[in-house]
Structures are given as structure tokens and as C-alpha cells.
Batch of 2 targets.
Target 1
Amino acid sequence: MPEVMRHYILVDNNEQGMKLHRILDEDGVENRIAPVPQSIQGEYPCGMSVMIGDGLLDKAVASIGRHGAEYYKIVSVEVPFMPNRDRYC
Amino acid sequence: MTDYHEMWKELGMDIESHDTLCEVLPNAIGDVFLSQENRPKAMDFWDMVISEVHGIRPHELIEEQKKGRKVFGTFCVYVPDEVVIAADGIVTGLCGGSQFWVPAGEAVLPKSTCPLIKASVGARLGRTCPFFRIADMYVGETTCDGKKKAYEILGEDVPMHIMDVPQMKREKDIIRWKEEIAEFAEKVEEFTGNEITAEKLGESIRIINEKRKALARVFECRKSECLPISGRDALLMMQISFFDDPVRCAEMCNRLADELEERISNGVSVVPAGTKRILLTGTPLAVPNWKLHNIIETSGAAVVCEEMCTGTRYFENLVDESKTTLDEQFMALSERYMKTNCACFTPNTGRIDDIQRMVKEYKVDGVIDCNLKFCCLYDTEKYSVSRALKNEGVPVLSLETDYTDTDAEQLRTRIGAFVEMLNA
């Protein structure tokens, strides 16, 4: 499966994350709440982030700027979602 | 970012070991949930909760404890949350749905114990579940022999109250369960220092009924031929409902149901028309046990109903709200909880009646009856469940699994063949 670039907007806390999620929704920027990916957990604590797909970063950044929304950092990572991987917890 | 490590450290958790669990969760969530197309927007709440499943709610519970409230950790749908809430206590579920916790459980329990029990004990003894660390009291029940023995170990260093669940459903058993509930109420009063009045119990009965109604609304939407939510998402909602504040849980489930009802009226389905509809029955699927749902739904079928403790058994039947004395309310609670059909009862024909009814209500094409390994009770009931369904011409597949990934390919083969047979 080809790896897909996704952008994770890291936030200071879940309240900030949910606020950012709502702002992006209102501006029509497709996004989902997602856990901070495993590949960057060494650098950042685990927890929630706001995930946007490739090609939507500019729209997201513009929306964030327009609303003065707070966030911690944006990290771009190639994360494959593999529903048939069968690696559960 | 919120770093919960300090909180976990103060709870006496094994941080290093717990971090390894945190590492695997994002991939599993990505594969099982985020890989889906066209999910309801209202799932954002549960996406947030599961992303910080050992952070957000534990933090809330600790803050409430600082105000003097007591937290009761429970294992089973027979424990009446209403009684705890009436004494201003808080109910939480406890960890037990991951292979991660099983080895620590096997260190003290026989390997031939069901994975749910081994994982629960392992989560407690391995100090890798914040809910087990936070709970001021555990409330067990006598629904199986494995749990009864496990409670003796779990109760060694945390106060433990065991409720003696009857094994039959005669009138005298319902009265006996009422007495057991009354005794539990006394224990809760003593432990919290708060009196349970008829007024308070009436209010808590109403709160939990509202939660049940909200969960039922979501399930009602799953009966539609236009399926507005996947089984995976519905399962996540259900699993988290055991941990959440009941008022917020009802609010979020109603918000989700609003969206699902709108989806149905707009013809928005998460699966193509004609996708085979599966009812899953058997032993509970504690968070983060998503294996069966994921395999079924990536094998061309959709799970539309769970006849299990993490499903319809949790919310079907309301408690009568018209009673005004504690004695009457305890009886009303007993009558409601004794309607839940668990394999620990004999006979348990009510469960078969439920499955047959749900097959019709949820427009089910096939039933998958699955028990966790070493659950003798549900394993034994497979015979009568299978026979009853076959007599009605309902295809049924009987399975057994545990929390490991090692049987996933075998399950894929069997479930794939079953779906193919349904499609033939």
C-alpha cells in the first residue's frame, strides 16, 4: 500500500483541538480527530491531534490564520492506514 | 500538548510499560476507524476520547475525587449504576480488552481463563490502567467462576464489594436480587458517606434511563436499510459509554443519533446497497477489542447489531420511573436488570428470543455467534443458539477467539466464506 502524506496539527490540549476542529469544519476543510501518530511519539507526547489530508494544508493554514486559532505545531508524516493489517492492540 | 505522564506517575502506574501501549494505539485507530470513508461527523467526540483514552476521563475522575467524590470501578452490566450515582458516586468501566494486559494476568491466573479476565487482572497488577488505579472501590458480581476467583485477587489491596447475581429468574430470584441491590446501596452509602434517598435514586434512575434511550436511538438508526453508521463506529460509542459521564454520554449519543436520522432521510449510507447485514452475538468486546468488527467489515459485510453486554444488553429495558419509595425503586431496578439475558442464567431462552427478534428488527442476513476462549457458558449456548436460528432459516457462523492477532487470518477465511455464502 502506498504511503499517504497526512498533516497532523498538534495542539496543547483537547479543548484547543476541538475548537480547531470546529473552525476547520466551519470553513469546509475536511479534517478528523486522530491520535498523534506513532512515528513522532518519541518527540511529542501521545494524545489527540487534528488530521488533514494531503492537498488541504494551505486551506487549513489559511483558515487557522483567519480565525487566529491556536495550535502547537503542524507535522507532516507519511502514515498508511491499512484496514487489513490485522494488528490490533 | 497535554502530557499525562505526571498524572500517571502520581497514580503509581508503570510508565515505561504503559508507553508501549500508547505506541500501538494510533496505528490500530488509524487502521480500524480513520481508514473508513464517510463517517458521521459526530464521531469526532469518540475520536477525541479514544485518542486520549487514558488521559481525559482519568483526569476528570481525579478532579472529582479531589472534591470528595468516590469512584466505583465495575465489570458487568448487572451492577446498577443508579445506586452509585444516587450517592453522588461515579461509575467507571475498567480496562480489559487488550492482549497487552494478558501476560500480566497469566502470571497469576490459569492460562485457561478467558482473556477478558486475564486482561483485567493484568491491567491491575501490571499498573498499566489508570481506571484501576483511580477506582476507590471495585464492584464485582458472580456472573462466572473465573471472575469470582479473580475478584479475590483484585480485592487484596482495594475495597471490593461482590454482588451475588442469581442463577435463575424465578420470582424469588428477582426478590433476592432486589435485596442484593438494597445491600449494595447500604455499602455505597457507608463508603461515600452520602445517604441515598428516594428522591436521589429517582433522579439517578431518570439519568441512566436517558442514557439508555440515547444509545437505543443510535441502534434504532442501525435498523434502517440505509445504514448510516458502521459497526466499528457504533462499537466504539458503546465501549466508551461504560467510562463516560452518563449525562454527557446521552448528550453525545443524541447528537450522533440526530445526524444518523438525517443521513437516513437523505439516503446516506456507509455501505453499498445490498451489503450483507450481520448480527454479532456472544461475549463482550471491551475497548480496544475491535478485531471481529474490523474483519467482518473489511470482508464485505456490515455489523448492524451486537447482542452482547457491549451492545443491546446494556441499554434495552428501562427502569420504571414511577416508584416513590426506596423499597419500590429497588424492586424496579431488580426487575429491569433481571430482564438482561446472560449465559450465567439457566435456562437462558430469553437470549435466543432476543436474537430472533433482533434478526427481524435489524433486517439481518446472518448471525455470527462468537465467544472469548475459555468462556464455557457462551460456548455451550452456541448449540441452542445455532439450532434455533437454523430452524428459522437464519445462517449462523459460530466462532471462538481471543485478543491475539494470530488467528486473524483464520477468522478472515471463515468470515469471508460466510459472507460469500450469504451473497450466493
Target 2
Amino acid sequence: MTGAEIIVEAARIWLWIGAGVAVLFLGFGMAMVDEDADGAFAFRPLLVPGILLIWPLVLWRWGRLAMGSDDWAWRYGPPRAIHMAMAVGLSLAILAFLLGGALVKQSWPADSAPQQLSAPEVSE
Amino acid sequence: MSVKYTPVQWNRVKYCYDALLVAGTILFLAVFLPLPPEALGHTRPVDPQITNARAFGACAFVMLSIILMIGPLARLDDRVLPLLYNRRHFGVLTCLVALTHAYFVLNWYFAFSPTDKWAASLSANTSYGQALGFPFETLGIFALLCLLVLAATSHDFWLKFLGAPLWKGLHMLIYPAYAAVVGHIALGALQSQEVTTFAWITAFLSLGVAGLHLAAALQARMSPDPQAHAVPDPAWREVCDVTDLREGFAQIAQLPDGKRVAVFLHEGQISAISNACAHQNGPLGEGRIVNCLVTCPWHGFQYDVRNGQSPAPFTEKIPTYRVRLKGSRVQVDPVANPPGTPVPPVPLSKAARV
């Protein structure tokens, strides 16, 4: 099994576990932690892709909310300070990719003559 | 906005927004797909599947660029705020367009792969140590994965379940995703382009996104919300003078715990609430009071400034703060009350009595 196949297999397992979490959460857990979801079923299928992808986060939040250990004050502190770091990081990454891509780009004139890179093997 | 996750308050503007999104996407593809090969930098005709892949890829990049421009533009100019309202629909549509791009690529270039197509796309080129011939496909897969996470968690349920700060932190994946998309293009499609038009378009859009985000971040840093000043009584913090208050609007101040309070003057009375909307932590203090309710400038969520509660049938709540007047100075208790706690507003006429 190659490294790429291991990654794809791991992704498949991840999604299957997510499917199990989706069944449990949407079927039993959701209404326990969100009173607005109690009796509301039509929108639940929309949540399946999200649970498949971030099920560890779902389990963690589910646990915190079910145990009543969620800090309400934390919900009102937007992460504003990080925007500058994100803006600088994004700008540097864009510049690096644009310049890097332009620098390594190979362009050949239409009339370039063929160049022999190594001597041909001589068969005896 | 929704009540028990049933959408309400869908209006003509929002339907028009979504209709324009779909129409714009179809128009882009309709213009791109019939382009002659030479316009795309090809010396001979290319297979339709390749043209399809490039059309959807280009469309996704342009859409993603516009999405990322809306946020900082709205910070720099209030007139752009309406574009924020349905931006999540824009994001979901972009993800679908990007998925279509991936579908065409996988089912053309890896159609006859003896291994899984995704595994083949990851293993076809593993020259990670060099810039020339870098496996740009991996950058595209990373970006697609980020877009899938963002689209899949765009429903309002996720905001409530994860909490706005965590949700916003998760959705900051859009930054590395966009950088990866630029790398995917610069080290991929642009390497085989003899026509420089697309290189210039890519540079213009991506540098535009970077410039706008830097400008918005710089503006926030150069004109930060003022700090609430300490006063002799440690239980209170001074926010502003009554003369700074304007009917229907707020003064925003940062509290010692880093959170922001918005002090409103409404019908001659002063109330203080959290500056962070319960929905996406939008800046309530930058909104104004409409029909006795402060309206979030981002998505229109509303709260009564006297108790931090959304009007029925909505159930959103925000923290409130005790407020008092010391002479003409407005002071707040920096310890927030639990969301939805009623606090009697302080009439301006009491200013001289304290």
C-alpha cells in the first residue's frame, strides 16, 4: 500500500466514523443540547456533511454542552486580533506563489535548437 | 434568520442575491467555455473535458476572490455591507463549482488509473522538494477540503452549536485555502500558459484580496475602539461623556477582559450591551436602533438594548451591562450579565443627580 493509498483509506475510515457520529448525534444527541432543534427535523440532513468532516469537534462540543460546562461569556469574544496575522500571512503566501511561479516558469522560443543533454548510448 | 431552524424573513433582496449568484456563475461559464484555444494559450484544440475543468476552476477562483474581498470592503465602506447578508450561499456555490472542477480533472487525467483516482492524484507527482514541477494538485486538494469544511458547516446550527468564536476560527481556513488556490494556479495552469492574460488576472485578483485584507487590518489597528478608563471605584469603568452619545447610536469601548461594550442612547435613556452579536459576533455597536431594536450591521439580527433579547419569536440573547452616570460621565460595570438579563436603562436627565 502506497502512502497516497493509506491517506485515502484513512479518509474513508474517517468518513465512516463520521457517519456513525451523525446517526447518533442527529438521532439522539442534538435535541438534548439544542432546544431549538427539538422537533425540528427537516434541516438535519443538511448537517450530515459537516458531521462527516468535523466529527471529533462535534463529539467535543456535544460533551461540553451535555455536561453544562460551556462558558457563555466565551461565546461573545470574537477572534478579531488574529486578522492582522492572517492578512500578513495570506499576503506573503500569495506573493511567494506568484513570484515563485513566475520565476520557475519555462518558456522556450519557437525556434530554439535541440540540445543534447547526454551522449547517446552506443550499443556494441 | 431562523426560528427553530426554519428560515424566516426571506425577502426579495435575498432571493435576488441568490438569483444573481447563480446567473453570474452561469454567465461566466457561458463566456469561458466557447473561448477559442488560442485565447486560453493552447496552440491546438483541447478536449472539452479539459476546457470544462479550466472553466470551472477559473470560475471558482474568481468567486473565491470576490468572497474574500467582500469582508474587508465592508469594513472599509459601509455601502458594501448588504453583500455580506448571503455570503455563505456564495461560499456554498463556490464549493460546488470547485467540486465540479475536481470531478472533471479526476475523470479525465486519472480516468484509467489502476488505483483509486484520489490516491492517483496524490501519488502521480511527489516532487515536493522542488518549485519547478511542484505537485500543485495537492494544493488544490487541500483547498477543496477546506472549502468542503466551510460549506458543510455554513448552516446557522453550526454557529450556535460551535459558538461564534470557534466557528469563526474554523472558517479562517479560508485564508490558507485561498493561498493554496493561488499556488495551485501559479504552479499549475499558469506554467503551461503562453498567453499572459490569465497570469495578470490571477495576480490582480489575488493581490487585490491581499491588499484589501491588509488595508482593513491596518485600519482596525490604527483606529482601535477606545479603552474604557479605570475610575477610582474599581467596580466601574468609564466609557464616554453623555455629549458623545447620539440618539439611536452607540459608543463602543474595550473592557479589561478584551471584550467590547456598546453603550446606546435610546429615547433619552442609556443602555449597555455586548458589542458581539450572538449570531456571528458582528459589531452591534456599529448598528443603529430601528423600531426600538438595535440591528446588527452584518446580518440584521436584532436585540432590545434594555434586556439583550431578540424579539419573539427569535430566541437569540446577548450579555448586558449595568450602566450609571457619574456627572456627565457614562460608566459601565465591566462584569457582563448573563445573556438576556434585563437592566433598567439610565435616563439622561439623572446625569446631574449622581
